[in-house]
Amino acid sequence: MNRVLTIQLRRFGLPGAVLVLLAGTAGLYSRTVAWSGGWISLAMSLREYLMLMCPAALAAGAWLARQEHRAKVAELFAGTPRPRHQRVLSTLAAVGLAVTGGYLGVLAVTAPWIAGTARYLPGAAVAVAAVGVLAVIAAAWIGLAVGRLLPNPATAPVLAVIGLLAIVAGPAAFRQEWQSALASPSWGMSPFSEFQTVPGRASAAQAILAAALAVAGAILLAAGRWRTRAVALVPVVLGLVLSVAVMPRDHDNIVFDPVAQQLVCTGDAPRVCVGRVHAGLLPEVTPHARQALTLLARLPDPPTAVQEDTNDYLDDDNPLPGPDTVVFRLEVGGDGHLADPDHLLPRLLQAAGADAAACPEGYDVPVARAVGAYLAGRPPARDPQESPLVREPGGPPVPDYDAEATVLWEGLRQLPEAEALARVAAVRKAALECTGMTGLLDGGTR
């Protein structure tokens, strides 16, 4: 059996592995910024691009069946005294190992991209990746069975198109998020944040259904009569029932990992902290953070620490620190390192270190930017990490925050240093107390 398996891997398995590898690698490297923030982001993006790898595995299985039919390998094996189940097992093993190698190969060529900065490896990342292995095996075995039944040159490409449409459009037929997650192995896997995770029960439910589909494909391949092939419906029904029972009903697309949000801090003062998932970036953040604290030390009651905001836009469970701490959002670039490090210092100094989230209604963006630019000693500039404002059709003009901040910054520069710092301190105090920042830099003339 080992010899047969080796021959099938060499002759037929390699193309399937290469097809899956190319599909997944092309998808992942087209959007490195989506998964460069950590291992869970990589695992989820790997699962997201099952929308390409599963159709590729379907086509690979059907293509292998077609090749066996053309080479009359099945007839040759049927003439040997070896039992049918052994011949089927060798074929299943060859195809399964091939597509698994392709899937893991995608992980192997992407992991080094973030290995230098990714420190936190949650168990959920391993589970998410493992479900992907089952998904590509199931797709390949189903493709193999269909290709054996329909050994037509058009079977492989048609299966690939059907698989792609099923994965992309299938979840839209369901109203509940947990139902959509079962309908597609890539549903809900587009990472929104590095603090995101996938519940263990969700991965277990998806794994059960993928395993059931793989068993169904194996039965279809092994069965010699249509009546026997109908038995393939049994594992599908059982798998669907079990996966529905296991899948959490409150499963949402965005679930946060509290361990990833835990703070990792420098051992010396002044203290600088980032979320555990960003621990590898702490050496890159620390110099900018401590420079910001040095510049803010010219103000009365200045902050003495810097901390990443580990809450996200949809997660406000963690309380914000007090006024003695500068809070900021850490952005990871497509290379796994700090995104736009040159803009981190002005970002830390905006509103003289006061957090916009503490008082969003009274936060004046041009004033905050002008203050940060003055303390940083550079002109205001739009942060590349900020989304540009887009004017709605027929709506009011979009405010030019950069132009307004530049005017205020130039006004601050013309003042004596003591008076300029007094106004900067007034902006910080107003931002912390939610009393309104507008007009504090120009005497209310705006």
From TrEMBL:
Membrane-traversing stretches: 12-29, 49-66, 87-114, 120-144, 156-174, 204-223, 230-248
Domain of life: Bacteria
Record key words, sorted: Membrane, Transmembrane, Transmembrane helix
Entry annotated with the keyword Transmembrane: yes
UniProt-annotated stretches for the region Disordered: 378-399
Name the UniProt record assigns to this protein: Uncharacterized protein
Organism: Actinoplanes xinjiangensis
